[in-house]
Design goal:
By secondary structure, the chain is of the alpha+beta class. Helices cover about 25% and strands about 55% of the residues. It has one domain. Strands 1, 2, 3, 4 and 5 form a five-stranded antiparallel β-sheet that branches. A hairpin with a 2-residue loop joins strand 1 and strand 2 (about 80-110). The chain is globular and about 40 Å long. Keywords: Signal. It comes from Halioglobus japonicus.
């Protein structure tokens, strides 16, 4: 019963984060640009940048687990190199796991149809499997869907994990005063 209560309280706290407007200020812009630069420096991702109609960058995500786990991150959608909106990522996974990990993530949208699906909100990237043991430093883990490619760069922490999960993304178009840098 206490586990259910804790999960409910966590969900309630996180839902408050979603409703708060987020401004693309200088600090968020710098973190996002650093993440984009890091992904662009990876030669194997060049074709994804070249072929994508848009991409969403999540510069700072957190994953934690202890049997059941979850992840949370805010990101930004770029279409034709222009910032067009904010995205929220929430992940749930199950399997043997223990620890906390920080990462950054990029999603490449290959078609306008899948981009429009993402922008309608509640986009799910399902079937992701992760098997990581004692991840230190940097690594890139690809995830695929027919029209979406996802790459994750582990930045730090220690998460012993062999899990299966799903990710949900919600999209929020920028208001005229949200993009300031």
């Amino acid at each position: 019963m206490t586990l259910i209560l804790r999960m409910w309280l966590l969900a309630l706290a996180l839902s408050g984060c979603v409703t708060q407007p987020m401004v693309y200020d200088e600090e968020r812009a710098a973190a996002t640009e650093a993440a984009i630069t890091a992904f662009q420096s990876r030669e194997e991702l060049t074709r994804f940048f070249d072929e994508a109609v848009a991409y969403a960058v999540f510069p700072g995500n957190w994953r934690a687990g202890s049997g059941f786990g979850g992840a949370f991150g805010n990101g930004w959608l770029f279409e034709g190199g222009e910032l067009t909106g904010r995205a929220l990522m929430v992940e749930a996974f199950v399997g043997p796991n223990l620890g906390v990990q920080s990462d950054r993530k990029i999603l490449f949208f290959r078609t306008a149809d899948v981009l429009n699906e993402f922008k309608r909100g509640r986009f799910e990237f399902t079937g992701q499997a992760n098997a990581a043991a004692a991840t230190w430093g940097r690594a890139v883990t690809p995830g695929y869907n027919p029209d979406v490619a996802m790459f994750v760069e582990v930045r730090g922490g220690l998460l012993l994990e062999a899990s299966v999960g799903t990710q949900r993304y919600d999209y929020f178009p920028l208001s005229s005063d949200a993009a300031t840098p």
